[in-house]
Amino acid sequence: MEAAPPAFRLAHGDNVAVARRPIAAGETFLLDGAPITAACAIAPGHKLAARSIAVGESILKYGCPIGHATMAIAPGEHVHVHNLASDYLPTRTQQDG
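User: That's the sequence. What structure does it adopt?
Assistant: Structure tokens below.
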């Protein structure tokens, strides 16, 4: 039986994938048949870019926008508060604690 990939998209068309398990920096795996390399370590449950995401582009998870990119995000990069802002609630920053 083939092992499950370390990350998966929750809905077709999502531009982020969710880590199933810890993903090591530099680890390469197939995401929907295409190779992707993690730019840094990704914790389980965290998001990584499934493709290039432009500044201001909506971040899609579960097929719904959850915010927008505050900077360009390359495939395999961690998507979190350092490069994502919520369009619905004030986004906490790492400085907020």
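The CA atoms of residues 14 and 64 lie 8 Å apart.
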